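Input.
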Amino acid sequence: MQKEILSFEITNQEFGIDVEYVEMVIEKEEITPVPNAREFIEGIVNLRGRIVPVFDLTKILDLEIEEGHDFDSIIIMKFDKEEFGILVNKVNNVISFDEDTLDVLPSKSGKFIGVVKRYCN
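Output.
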């Protein structure tokens, strides 16, 4: 079965999200911090009157960050009626591939982030 993922980069590493869960991509805007929030919650944004939490995947996936690192975009997603954003450095393009070539990452985010194996086949 064919699958489409939105390719994006965080700290010079490429990731993908099933387009089924992507609502939109927006430029990074002011993020309001949330007191006492979990470490990976960067804060919230007001998206046309909806309050949307924004997650930092570098903290969830334990990725190294260079000093002075900054994000450019927020991918707004909807998963099981929950809406949230993830911070990314760069949004690349949509990639189509056979679903059998997807390896799901063994993490809390494994339901919607994957790594394509045998991509060049």
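The two ends are 16 Å apart (CA to CA).
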